[in-house]
Amino acid sequence: MTAAREGSPRIVRREDYAPPAYWIDTVDLTFDLDPAKTRVLNRMRVRRNPDQPAQPLRLDGEDLNLARVLVNGQGTSFRLDGGQLVLEKLPEGDEPFELEIFTTCAPEKNTQLMGLYVSQGTFFTQCEAEGFRRITYFLDRPDVMSTYTVTLRADKAQYPVLLSNGNLVAQGDLEDGRHWARWEDPHRKPCYLFALVAGKLACRSQPIRSRSGTDHLLQIYVRPHDLDKTDHALQSLMAAIAWDETRFGLPLDLERFMIVATSDFNMGAMENKGLNIFNTKYILANPATATDTDYANIESVVAHEYFHNWTGNRVTCRDWFQLSLKEGLTVFRDQEFSQDMAGSPSARAVKRIEDVRVLRTAQFPEDAGPMAHPVRPDQYAEINNFYTVTVYEKGAEVVRMMQTLVGRDGFARGLKLYFQRHDGQAVTCDDFAQAIADANPDSELARLLPQFKRWYSQAGTPRVHARGSYDAEARTYTLTLRQSCPPTPGQPTKEPFVIPVAMGLLDRQGHALPGTERLLVLHEPEMTVTFEGIDAAPIASLLRGFSAPVILEHDLHDDELRVLLAHDTDPFNRWEAGQQLLLRRALAAIRAGGPVHEPLDAAVLQAMREVLRHPTLDAAFKELVLTLPAETYIAEQLDEVDPQRVHAVREAMRQQMAHALHEDWVWAYEAHHDNGAYQPDPVSSGRRALTGLALQMLCLAARDNGNPVWPGKTYQRFKDATNMTDRYQALSALVVTGHELAAKALERFHDLFRHEELVLDKWFALQAGAPDRGGDALPRVQALLQHPDFHLRNPNRARSLISTYCHANPAGFHRADGAGYTFWRDRVQEIDAFNPQVAARLARALDRWRKLAEPYRSAARAAIEAVAAQPTLSTDVREVVTRALAD
């Protein structure tokens, strides 16, 4: 049993932060790698922090066997206290001393995948947030920055590749078929950025010369049979390096930059200095095995981890409460990169809409639930639980608002000042915001900075209430904006935020009214602005580009929304108008009660038809407009949720769109299905996305009328496809619509890709997320648990089946008999026994149980209480379920 499972969890509070009592200047690590018993010799140069009172040195450790402790080469007394190694008799004064610690660990038994572990015969590490303590005793906190020298020793036949951070300075052979390699990292770093890899790996190398004229070596290491799937990741890395130097003047600062991929990884990727370790999901791609979405995600995640080299590594977090300092900022940077790579304004808008959909469907519910927390949290029991969409995606929106308030060039100036002030330091979110403001002293951000920083300290999603009035006699239009924010756990009242509201006015024919485009900055509870010289009542287009992460409540009528959908010059608000029209119909049908008939009226269907048939709109944009709001997003608009009712209404809307627009879907398919040789560019990807939606709608209509033509065409497309996107979309159309050909296609798909792990993840996820018909979803998932290709201990595979069912199949999961919750309970407990991080993320599937109608609410609560009653829960899961049950 680890310390994390003993007694009540320790609450860590931001207000209790104190600098470390000791600094560790240098670290010299020697590893004798063995899966059963790895020996770690840790030699550190340590000195007292003169700014802190004299006290013992307390080093963190977990699941380590301690063999020796020496101070300046001599034995010394020590004690173990609650997972910490405590040294009291240390040299006096401020002079550095040498501390040597010798430990052993068992990487092959490390199922948590934190610290040093073995995956498929290869050694990997994952140290963020607190994994380094599972490798050696250390001051495991991000504000202790050291230079590292690492020597790796291992059997040469079993582990021919030996990697660590920095530069390879020496290597050679040893007796008994062993060999060694020594790495030196010239940059000071916190221990969470330490990494090592050892195993049988193939390498793709690419020398590059930067814009500044320096030479570098880029390397991607994978299992030998995956080498042909690394080109896109390498191209993405080169693009990210060039973009960061061009956009922000930030060059690559390493002789070599390495990426290694593993299929056993709790996260998406990790930005260890110079040696990034990735989940294979975000590295491996070729047209036969990866979809357009996979290609886009790889580009984004590779860029994200590379951008951390400056925003996270060169300047890091003072403490883990400042996590968004690196994550929110770097998400913003990878979003900007992806938009710039997209090229055209339309493609940029599609990327922005996709990012906002994630925020609304994942972060807004988090902000409204028991795990609500500020972008900069005030306390935690387990820091792993705060790698959240609030810290990442909402944190990125906070950075985006800064750029909006100071301008693109002003933000670049601010980032430059940030690095001038803090390069090589561990700092705070306040330090970052101050640098952006100081570089733009005349900006609204500088004027309102103390208030703006409430975005870091206050949880919850603000609401902006907009009301407009037109005075025909005075030819004026008056817009009133009012803000509010609901209570969240621990924060019953909220102070006003600083909310940038980008806007413009249109006339009733959809023409933009000159001089009305502006950026309003709402920082009081209410503000009013008057536009003069307006000849007729206008239509307000508010929150353009989603200029702030808020919920906008406005008084626009349906006919006004249709004008925005047809004519708004802002693509985001054009999409948003369509979503609002669809959302209003869904909510009306849900609240009406009784049998569900046809929720969509003729005017809305015609508006959708006009978008689909529009001669100049991009296919990718059309697909976004014509995709119905998600069931989870619809549910968030309701005070009490009957998941089966929400599902029934949304399905009825899909059926209506499938039938009423049948000929339009036929046209869309015929006009977009042939795209030539595969390219994952925005235009081709958009055409494929619209083709996939058309196929799904045509199969849905065919299911209802018994016409076999389109299912037959879809199955033939599935068989003939020359790329994974086309193949998977055809398979999905058959599975989602429940056609009898689905079983045959699923079997064929499995036969084709039985040896491709990432493709099998898609196969499991598609079935786990397929619509529930008569209660068949849960039995299907339970049967797949027994499939020979299902491996519970592989995080990707567990997420593909179990998390997809619990998080992304509301109608299948929320069963009236509570069986879905029982399944959730058992899986959370089962996974928590060996991987608390994965279990805690699964546990959050019931965050919003209080919104559920009966009988769901009581059954969900009983399941959560059953998990909470377990005496051996990890801190990770206990924090989640305890907060879920808190009043």
Automatic annotation (TrEMBL):
<dbReference type="InterPro" id="IPR037144">
    <property type="entry name" value="Peptidase_M1_pepN_C_sf"/>
</dbReference>
<keyword id="KW-0031">Aminopeptidase</keyword>
<keyword id="KW-0482">Metalloprotease</keyword>
<dbReference type="InterPro" id="IPR027268">
    <property type="entry name" value="Peptidase_M4/M1_CTD_sf"/>
</dbReference>
<feature type="domain" description="Peptidase M1 membrane alanine aminopeptidase">
    <location>
        <begin position="233"/>
        <end position="444"/>
    </location>
</feature>
<comment type="function">
    <text>Aminopeptidase N is involved in the degradation of intracellular peptides generated by protein breakdown during normal growth as well as in response to nutrient starvation.</text>
</comment>
<comment type="similarity">
    <text>Belongs to the peptidase M1 family.</text>
</comment>
<feature type="domain" description="Aminopeptidase N-like N-terminal">
    <location>
        <begin position="28"/>
        <end position="193"/>
    </location>
</feature>
<keyword id="KW-0479">Metal-binding</keyword>
<dbReference type="GO" id="GO:0008270">
    <property type="term" value="F:zinc ion binding"/>
</dbReference>
<keyword id="KW-0862">Zinc</keyword>
<protein>
    <recommendedName>
        <fullName>Aminopeptidase N</fullName>
        <ecNumber>3.4.11.2</ecNumber>
    </recommendedName>
</protein>
<dbReference type="InterPro" id="IPR035414">
    <property type="entry name" value="Peptidase_M1_pepN_Ig-like"/>
</dbReference>
<keyword id="KW-0645">Protease</keyword>
<dbReference type="InterPro" id="IPR012779">
    <property type="entry name" value="Peptidase_M1_pepN"/>
</dbReference>
<dbReference type="GO" id="GO:0016285">
    <property type="term" value="F:alanyl aminopeptidase activity"/>
</dbReference>
<feature type="domain" description="Peptidase M1 alanyl aminopeptidase C-terminal">
    <location>
        <begin position="558"/>
        <end position="886"/>
    </location>
</feature>
<feature type="domain" description="Peptidase M1 alanyl aminopeptidase Ig-like fold">
    <location>
        <begin position="460"/>
        <end position="554"/>
    </location>
</feature>
<dbReference type="Pfam" id="PF17900">
    <property type="entry name" value="Peptidase_M1_N"/>
</dbReference>
<dbReference type="Pfam" id="PF11940">
    <property type="entry name" value="DUF3458"/>
</dbReference>
<dbReference type="InterPro" id="IPR024601">
    <property type="entry name" value="Peptidase_M1_pepN_C"/>
</dbReference>
<dbReference type="GO" id="GO:0006508">
    <property type="term" value="P:proteolysis"/>
</dbReference>
<dbReference type="InterPro" id="IPR042097">
    <property type="entry name" value="Aminopeptidase_N-like_N_sf"/>
</dbReference>
<dbReference type="InterPro" id="IPR038438">
    <property type="entry name" value="PepN_Ig-like_sf"/>
</dbReference>
<dbReference type="InterPro" id="IPR014782">
    <property type="entry name" value="Peptidase_M1_dom"/>
</dbReference>
<dbReference type="InterPro" id="IPR001930">
    <property type="entry name" value="Peptidase_M1"/>
</dbReference>
<keyword id="KW-0378">Hydrolase</keyword>
<dbReference type="Pfam" id="PF17432">
    <property type="entry name" value="DUF3458_C"/>
</dbReference>
<dbReference type="InterPro" id="IPR045357">
    <property type="entry name" value="Aminopeptidase_N-like_N"/>
</dbReference>
<dbReference type="Pfam" id="PF01433">
    <property type="entry name" value="Peptidase_M1"/>
</dbReference>
<dbReference type="GO" id="GO:0008237">
    <property type="term" value="F:metallopeptidase activity"/>
</dbReference>
